[in-house]
Design a protein that fits this description.
globular, alpha+beta, 49% helix
């Protein structure tokens, strides 16, 4: 099986949230939702299925646990309410195994 590990960091309402999609987060998601994460992720990637709101919130909550174990489902919902980009960035980073951070502005060349 290919490596499946990703993370992303976002600042929302003055608070920095780091989300990690690793095996522990996947297990957490499956325990809450009751389905197979990899089957659902494949459906989402191929367009044969659309994530339900409950799945999205469960995935974000699971991804928060590594760095924010006190995070609640309400925190996850509040984060998602700011935009679906965090879900998309998390999934994209997991597919490539790289961190997806906030977009950075190009730096000017040194004189």
């Amino acid at each position: 099986m290919a490596k499946f590990l990703g993370s992303t960091t976002r600042e929302i309402d003055g608070e920095t949230w780091r989300l990690v999609l690793d095996f522990n987060a996947i297990c957490h998601f499956e325990e809450v939702v009751g389905g197979n994460f990899f089957e659902r992720a494949e459906d989402w990637q191929t367009g044969s299925g659309v994530p339900r709101a409950r799945e999205l919130r469960a995935l974000i909550h699971a991804a928060l646990q590594a760095h924010h174990p006190q995070a609640t489902l309400q925190d996850a919902g509040r984060i998602l309410s700011q935009g679906m980009e965090i879900f998309e960035a998390l999934m994209a980073s997991a597919m490539t195994g790289a961190e997806a951070g906030p977009e950075k502005k190009p730096q000017a060349a040194a004189p």
